[in-house]
Specification:
Distance between the termini: 66 Å
Strand order of the largest sheet: 4-3-5
Radius of gyration: 29 Å
Largest sheet: 3 strands, antiparallel
Structural class: alpha+beta
Number of strands: 5
Amino acid sequence: MANALQEQLLKAGLASKQKARDVKTQQKRNKKAKVDDGSAALKLEIAEKKRLQAEKDKALNEERFAQAAEKGQVKGLINEFTRFAIKLPTNAELKFNFTLDNKILSVYITDSIQRDLLNGTLGIVRYEDKSYLVPHKLAERVNLLVPEWCGYLWDKSAADSVAQVSDADDPYADYAIPDDLMW
């Protein structure tokens, strides 16, 4: 006679078998949720460590930015990349995506600009919600002083390692890639 009331309600037609099963599963879930296995404390500790690390990183970045600002490097850098920036074409149809602060941003460019970006002769700098196409050396300097402004910077070492891996065991090396293939 574990659940006499439940049996009476089922016989009287006031409850269904499905409703009774749902109540049992909900009771089991509630019991399980009340059991403390120590994971809540661990989660709080991890969250606290992440928060402290984020604060530390932010303080370090602000300190580096302040030092560069004191030297006048940041202001000169802003003037330099706004002056040397390549104007984004207005009639471009090719969308180039890049990531900055875990956000995917895009600019519309031409084929020649895309080639320059992928070859490493150009980079993208984003300042005050505006994207600038700049020469690679200037993008490297921006990345050193204020890394959160550097949107796209071609990395030769990463490209070389990918090329070495892909050339070594490429089973499709004998097949031609069509020119109109777009990702």
